[in-house]
Design a protein that fits this description.
It is a single chain. This protein is an alpha/beta fold and 223 residues long. The chain folds into two domains: 2-60, no CATH class; 67-222, P-loop containing nucleotide triphosphate hydrolases (Rossmann fold), CATH 3.40.50.300. It has seven helices and eight strands. It has helices at 6-27, 43-52, 83-96, 113-124, 164-171, 190-203, 212-215; strands at 2-4, 34-36, 73-79, 101-105, 130-133, 146-151, 181-187, 208-209. Helix 4 links the parallel strand 4 and strand 5. The chain is globular.
Length: 223
């Protein structure tokens, strides 16, 4: 039996699709039972799957079943007009809430694959508690003790439409195993606000406005 999770799909979408296909086909026997798992399946991922498995049997959740209601995450949004206000919000959140591990998602990418892997391993091993990442780390990264996710930049597709799948993957590690988690979305423009409202409507799950002054009151939830 050959089993993979979302990590192989993440690698395939980074430009290594053919390498993954060749490696899998050359490694496993033709009669091997293959099982592929992912929280979401885009059209690109489905094309990748069909190149690995001939006539796959596909089990997919209905759209309404791809819900955020089964994870213990409180979702908020904060209006931040510039990077300075975003930075102040990060400091306030960090000083006000008891955090196990935290991930901050933003639009920035200048690290090599090797550098990313080394940093993630240090984060997983508790060498530091806050990891600033891009969408590359939204999929296929299994770190259990994350209690805070900050969307410094809202997730959008290449044509700047709301990226629902990436949002789900970003916050899914937060609030697992019955532990309370928090997600904060930084809203700096009308476009950010419209993206956030579209995500809220898509998942039928409220994203509540909060001010920096109110963040300190959230500590009561953890008592």
């Amino acid at each position: 039996m050959f089993v993979t999770d979302g990590a192989v799909f993440m690698i395939s979408l980074l430009g290594f699709s053919q390498i993954c296909i060749d490696l899998i086909k050359n490694t496993i026997a033709k009669d091997c039972q293959t099982m592929l798992f992912s929280a979401t399946y885009s059209d690109e991922v489905m094309d990748f799957v069909k190149r690995i498995i001939e006539k796959p049997v596909i089990f997919r959740l209905k759209h309404e079943e791809q819900s955020l209601s089964n994870i213990f995450v409180r979702q908020f949004y904060i209006e931040c007009n510039n990077d300075e206000e975003k930075y102040d919000a990060v400091k306030t959140i960090y000083l006000s809430i008891t955090i196990r591990l935290a991930m901050i998602f933003c639009c920035y990418k200048q690290l090599t694959v090797e550098q990313r892997a080394a940093i993630i391993n240090r984060f997983r091993n508790g060498k530091f508690r806050v990891l600033v990442v891009t969408n590359v780390c939204a999929r296929g990264i299994n770190i259990e003790d994350i209690s805070l996710v900050i969307n410094y930049d809202m997730p959008v597709t290449v044509d700047f439409k709301p990226d629902y799948e990436t949002y789900l993957h970003r916050i899914a590690p937060c609030g697992r195993f019955g532990k309370l988690g928090y997600t904060f979305n930084f809203i700096g423009s009308e476009k950010d606000f419209n993206t956030m409202k579209a995500i809220e409507e898509y998942f039928h799950h409220p994203i509540v406005e909060i001010t920096i002054d109110d963040i300190s009151n959230l500590e009561q939830d953890q008592e």
